Amino acid sequence: KYLRDGILVVDNILSAEELKAARDGLHETLLHHGVDTNDLEHTAHHLQKLSSTNGSGGVLDIFYPSFKMDIASNQILFQATQQLWKASLAQNGESEDELIMQGKQEMYHPFGKFDTDKGYMYIDRLGYRIPTKTAEEIGEKRICSLESEQPKKSKRKNTAIQRSLTPHLDCCPNTYNNSTNTSKWRPIQCFVSLTDNLEPNTGGFEAAAGFHRDFHKWAKERPPSTITKKDVKSGAKCRIDVPAPCVGEYTHIRPREDEHIMKLVQHVPVLSGSAVFWDNRIPHANAYKNDSLLSRAVVYCSFLP
């Protein structure tokens, strides 16, 4: 299934006891930062200071609490990663052309032979996506307060303190086959879910299953972005093509130029205590809204070969 879809949900990575300890640890950590999970209406505004992404995806810059490190060093999680490395990645330095001839182009990478028995924890952030209704109500109160203080400066847009994380890749298509000047190689991404997330539009994980098999062809043929540019002197406007952007390792999936990929992105149901693994060439997202009454909580954690 992973070879076909580039996505795999593995249940029961955490035992019932480990899951409870992780949830308790999360709640204690958030409370330390002023967020009471039992009183989000009055305390969730403190989440804003924990997010460097302006609330996108409910991603929080929390890295080293003990409950999170326990999950990141979970042996079952690493063993599952090892198995996926062995099954899905070429390990003997095969060229891309050789793998294309074998019909295994999705196994290509430019890093050559590597030891699948050795890995390094990648300490990532966590996700805590509150219900959209709560996020909007808190944001509205904040905007009203700002308007009363600075009525001429405030601008009404999306007032919610959290929002979706739109479809994207955590790699640059145009440099994927280049192993030089690369800060890290994380071929498989992962999170462990601390809450059930079985229905669409509940703040959960979405992905374009199977796209890793078409990634290399798409990367070579990807159309440029078309933008409108205004001449400073004449004021005349013209449309020009520019290379599709990649900022750091973040590649936005564009609604117009990449429309066919947007249509492939679908909800992936996950039970609490489960891990979701996905190939880093899979476009993925966080749902547009969390229309449930519950917050979605995950720990992002993976390994580097």
Overview of the structural elements:
The protein has 305 residues and is α+β, with helices and mostly antiparallel strands. The chain is 27% helix and 21% strand. The protein has helices spanning 2-5, 16-32, 40-43, 66-72, 75-88, 96-101, 132-149, 215-221, 259-262, and strands spanning 7-10, 59-60, 120-129, 165-169, 188-193, 205-207, 225-230, 237-242, 251-252, 266-267, 275-279, 284-286, 296-304. The strands form 3 sheets. It has a 6-stranded antiparallel beta sheet with strand order 1-11-5-13-3-2. Strands 9-4-12-6-10 form a 5-stranded antiparallel beta sheet, with no helix packed on it.
Distance between the termini: 22 Å
**What Rg do the Cα atoms give?**
21 Å
Number of strands: 13
Query: In percent, how much strand structure appears in the residues?
Result: 15-25%
The overall pLDDT average reads 93
Helix/strand order = HEHHEHHHEHEEEHEEEHEEEE
Q: Can you give the helix content as a percent range? A: 25-40%
Note the overall shape: globular
In the sheet with the most strands, the strands line up as: 1-11-5-13-3-2
Number of helices: 9
Uncertain runs are none
Main β-sheet, in a few words? 6 strands, antiparallel
The helix-and-strand class reads: alpha+beta
